[in-house]
Design a protein that fits this description.
The complex is a heterodimer of chains A (262) and B (354).
Chain A (H helix, E strand, L loop, with lengths): L1 H29 L10 H8 L1 H34 L5 H13 L2 H12 L11 H29 L3 H10 L4 H12 L1 H17 L2 H5 L5 H11 L3 H24 L10
Helix pairs in contact in A: 1-12, 2-12, 3-6, 3-9, 4-6, 6-9, 7-8, 9-12, 11-12
Chain B lengths: L3 E10 L2 E11 L4 E5 L6 H9 L6 E6 L2 E2 L10 E4 L11 H11 L4 H14 L15 H13 L5 E5 L7 H18 L2 E6 L2 H7 L2 E6 L2 E6 L1 H6 L4 H6 L4 E9 L4 E4 L2 E4 L12 E6 L5 E2 L6 E13 L3 E7 L4 E7 L12 E7 L4 E2 L4
Parallel strand pairs in B: 3-8, 3-9, 6-7, 7-8
Antiparallel strand pairs in B: 1-2, 1-4, 4-5, 9-10, 11-12, 11-14, 12-13, 14-20, 15-19, 16-17, 16-19, 17-18
Helix pairs in contact in B: 2-3, 2-4, 3-4
The chains are: A mainly alpha (262), B alpha+beta (354).
The structure holds adenosine-5'-triphosphate (ATP) and magnesium ion (MG).
């Protein structure tokens, strides 16, 4: 009994050390920019840099667009599969998992070949086209997470009966999606959105190979050329990711946020 | 012409036919119940009327108009589900007003109709609550109000009381019935509870394996079941096998004892075995008069059920159950005692063999 408890504590300690030691070391290092004392100089430099602002803003906007497009694709699909095509559930799930199986580098080379300047749809020829391509690529990357969250949320409500109840009240399919289904799977959509955002903010491969001014390549550039700033950036990125996770926890923990009366 | 007609309706899922040869006419304002065991196709038939399921064959008409291929949201049919199916993201008032909002009624009209419905179900104080803040009985009443708010042509209820406890079930079924009467709305009610069916309906449709066994008023169904299935499903009828002695005078042999029925024995030949039904409350203990049947047996069991005392008498092969009013006397019949039972010749009901 006693030794078992000790073992558990030891395992716990090792686990925590494994995750926290590099984090603490990085944080400590990021504070050492000023010689001889701890300071937040590295953070000040990073946060004041125009490149940081631009790339971060770019990735944020891209992340939000990715989320919107992802929701528009995933929610109706998952709803329809659940309601009318339950036999296709396995297939659709498999398709949504593909981005996890295929390496990003393979995907992006595929994109460049398909949408390169000599193709029928030369998206990479213009900067806006490349932005759009990157965004759709991110929708693909976020698909496994978005689909999972939405599907789980849909399963937790009685989609079929709610749909029929609304239909017998005279509602059409869009009214049902917008007024009945969406509000009731909001927590699932939000957690899918936060996961997608966390992915987009740190993504490097797509952005770099499509030559977009995103946050990921900026991180890489700083990391290769500076000493203290990369550590500060790593801590900032980490904090952002965890803020997203925290929001998922908050939303997912069943806090009921009633939709206001209309 | 009838208000709602189902003609030759059939429904198959793959090779599995779950509703067959379904013909029914429902009058305007009538309260019709589908009664039958689990899996007999009640819900499927109701869903075909609602438009959630397309029939494999047949036709549905509402006040003369063919609606067989009309989408569910165009049928103006109100539906109440066993699981309540209230919209969890909306308040009680928003739930009740949903159909009116979909129909683009003005906010003032919606509000007054919602208030009217809330008064009707006697829950005006709950307008601002969410469904998860309501009891099951309250949720089902809100669901009823939601179904009625857009003034549908027909109201469909699929086992609306099954998820509720016994006391609420009885009070709510009376409420539903009186609401239905006062609104005069044509209603189909699905249940597998015979007491519910008999107590609420103008007419009962008894279903078995996807087909109609018998349609009739509650008293017709109960007092004159046509088939063995109906007799066994509706109430605790005694089912006996009789051997025809002489069909022309209704003479039948039950476990070696002679009995007579005044009901018709169409085309039965001497020696035929015929199923018979006998209501427990039609039987009395003791010798009957000349125009009654008398059978001898032994008391096998006596159960005191409060208002009723239920006695089981073993004839020979067969046993019959007798329900007597509890008269308050101290003496219950003793087990193992020999006894005679008697019943009217009208109460021995021959059933279709089938
Ligand atoms: N979508 C479906 N696909 C295949 N079979 C179905 C489907 N819906 C119903 N069935 C089958 O049809 C038969 C009748 O089902 P139905 O739900 O109408 O029965 P019910 O009388 O309402 O039973 P219960 O009292 O249990 O609700 C059942 O055997 C059921 O398995
Ligand atoms: Mg059913």
């Amino acid at each position: 009994m006693k030794s078992g408890k000790l073992g558990a504590w030891l395992a716990m300690f090792l686990g925590v050390a494994y995750f926290l030691a590099p984090l603490i070391a990085t944080f400590e290092f990021s504070l050492r920019m000023r010689r001889g004392e701890y300071s937040f100089d590295a953070y000040r430099v990073v946060l004041a840099s125009a490149d940081f602002h631009d790339s971060f803003l770019y990735s944020t906007v891209l992340g939000l667009l990715t989320i919107v497009v992802g929701i528009l694709i995933v929610v109706p699909t998952a709803y329809w599969v659940q309601l009318r095509l339950p036999k296709l559930r396995g297939l659709v799930e498999f398709i949504t998992l593909l981005p996890l199986v295929i390496p990003a580098i393979v995907l992006v080379f595929g994109y460049v070949r398909l949408y390169g300047s000599s193709s029928i749809l030369p998206l990479t020829a213009t900067s806006l086209g490349a932005d759009a391509l990157l965004m759709f690529g991110y929708v693909g990357l976020g698909l496994p997470y978005m689909y999972r969250s939405v599907e789980t949320a849909l399963r937790s409500i009685d989609v079929r009966t709610l749909t029929e109840a609304a239909e017998s009240q005279g509602a059409g399919i869009w009214t049902i999606l917008v007024h009945i289904i969406l509000p009731n799977i909001r927590s699932g959509i939000l957690s899918g959105a936060f996961l997608t955002f966390a992915i987009v903010i740190g993504e490097f491969t797509f952005a770099s190979l499509l030559d977009r001014p995103a946050f990921g390549p900026y991180l890489q550039l700083i990391g290769a050329n500076r000493a203290y700033e990369p550590s500060a950036l790593a801590i900032i990125a980490f904090a952002l990711t965890w803020a997203c996770m925290g929001l998922i926890q908050l939303v997912g923990s069943g806090i009921r946020i009633p939709v206001g009366k209309r | 012409m009838s208000f709602l007609t189902l003609t030759g309706v059939r429904k198959a899922f793959g090779a599995n036919t779950v509703v067959r040869d379904f013909n029914l006419s429902v009058e305007r304002g009538e309260f019709v119940t589908f009664l039958g065991p689990s899996g007999c196709g009640k819900t499927t038939t109701l869903r075909i009327v609602a438009g959630f399921e397309a029939p494999s064959a047949g036709e549905i008409r509402i006040s003369g108009q063919d609606v067989t291929h009309l989408r569910a949201n165009k049928r103006a049919i109100g539906m109440v589900f066993q699981s309540y199916a209230l919209f969890p993201n909306m308040t009680v008032a928003a739930n009740i007003g949903f159909g009116l909002k979909v129909a683009r009624k003005s906010p003032a009209d919606i509000k007054s109709r919602v208030d009217e419905m809330l008064a009707l179900i006697k829950l005006p104080q709950l307008a601002g609550r969410y469904p998860y803040q309501l009891s099951g009985g309250q949720q089902q009443r809100v669901s009823l109000a939601r179904a009625l708010a857009p003034s549908p042509q027909i109201l469909l209820l699929d086992e609306p009381l099954s998820a509720l406890d016994a006391r609420i079930r009885v009070s709510l079924r009376e409420e539903i019935r009186s609401l239905q009467r006062s609104l005069g709305i044509t209603t189909i009610f699905v249940t597998h509870d015979q007491e519910e069916a008999l107590s609420m309906s103008d007419r009962v449709v008894v279903m078995n394996e996807g087909a109609i066994e018998q349609v009739g008023s509650p008293s017709e169904i109960y007092n004159a079941p046509r088939t063995r299935f109906v007799a066994s499903f509706v109430g605790t009828l005694n089912l006996l096998n009789g051997k025809i002695v002489d069909a022309s005078v209704g003479a039948i042999d039950i476990d070696g004892q002679r009995a007579t029925t005044r009901r018709k024995l169409n085309g039965a030949k001497p020696g035929d075995i015929l199923p018979l039904a006998l209501r427990p409350e039609a039987l009395r203990l003791g010798e009957g008069g000349d125009d009654r049947n008398t059978l001898a047996g032994v008391i096998e069991d006596v159960a005191f059920l409060g208002a009723v005392v239920r006695v089981r008498v073993r004839l020979q092969e067969a046993a019959v159950i007798i329900d007597m009013f509890n008269t308050g006397g101290p003496d219950l019949p003793a087990r193992g005692a020999p006894i005679t039972v008697n019943f009217s010749r009208d109460d021995l009901i021959p059933l279709q063999a089938h």
